[in-house]
User: Fold these one by one.
Assistant:
Number 1:
Amino acid sequence: MTDEIVMIISGILFGLTAGISPGPLITMVISETIKKGKTAGITASVAPLITDIPIIAVAVFLLSRVSNLNVFLGIMSILGAAFITYLAFESLTIKNMEMKQSESKNSNDSLKKGILTNLLSPHPYVFYFSVGGPLIVKSLAEGILPSLLFITFFLGCLVGSKIVIVLMVDKSKKFLTSKMYIYLIKLLGVLLLLYAVAFLINGLGLVGMSKQFDR
């Protein structure tokens, strides 16, 4: 197979895997869909189109110059834990399913949440510094087209799979009662809180702070 075909297949496989795998962004996207509707969920889903290009650029630049990125990834994990905790608190303390009247306001707010969630999550950084970045750097030796194909298909499948999930959740929620909405949102809040704890532990380990607790 040609380099272009290999990079297309890689982009599709990695994009679909990242798009449907459990994580802070997909959890937040589902929560936004339930609370505000499919438009808010779809808006949050496109956040990687805004956040990932700069991350890719930084990853490709640093991979050829920096050998140890543990401290950087650790700091991002700790920051991510703080923001995810905020999102969890917001979901856990919801009292009712009151819908906002301004759809544009809801969508803008959802996009901001999606951008912050993705920027402060260690997942994209870990992926691009450990998998995506090396693939891109290696393919650049053969030309820019294979790298562009990988990025295009990866982001397309990443965002597309999340939008499909949003549409499925939006259709299913019509059969739920308001109390079930609230319970589901609170459950998502608990999942976010678990992610926050995991990211905090991972971040402390990466920056070396967890060693002080070893006895």
Number 2:
Amino acid sequence: MADPMRIRAQAAGDKTTVRVLMAHEMETGQRKDAAGKIIPAWYIQEVTAQLNGKTVMTAQWGPSVSKNPFLQFTIKGGKAGDKVSISWLDNHGDKRTDETTVS
């Protein structure tokens, strides 16, 4: 399993800004290793964000997203103390979910 995501969620007025740094290799399947063999594709396909258990964002990604991707988005209606969870699923079936509290 991958390293934990670094998530920050900060409320300002009626909006909450969420910043996420995900640890993932994100291989395209087009690079070759030192021996000349193709490195198999391995990338995040779906990212989901939830606020207090309610889905507020879903993204479909592909192999063109960079290694250790950074994601930032704004949620309308979040406030301090709310729970924000981020989940991803990659093309190998690996999953990761992490959570933070809005400050």
Number 3:
Amino acid sequence: MGIEVNTKLKIAKPVNEVFEAIVDPEKMANYWFSSGSARLEQDKTITLRYEEYDAQVELTVLEIQEDKKIAFKWGAPGDEHVVTITLSEVDDTTTIIEVNEKGWNENDDELISNLLGNKEGWVYMLTCLKGYLENGSTNLRAAIVF
């Protein structure tokens, strides 16, 4: 089964709005990465930039189910992780979003620290997404200090 990081949050917005905020790089720039090379679509490789941290990451989209699921892999070759974002419609105005990341090396000396760091990152990303969608806040992103 392997080690996984799971994070789940309720957002008071319709599922289609939550989905679009994740796959549309212009919307994503309001709460997560500062830019993306393209819309997230199945079988595409996308480059996401974090201008504030002078960093970028490439991800390959493995699966898209509109308004339901986004799965991608990212990380260095040989150390790739698979992230699955699942959207569940509670009603016309509420969505449960869950992020699952797996691919951790169980023999890594830094395993616990890496798991905690990633969990913290996903909680922060989802909190920023919630703030953006529910309250229009665009000033929460990139506030983590390393």
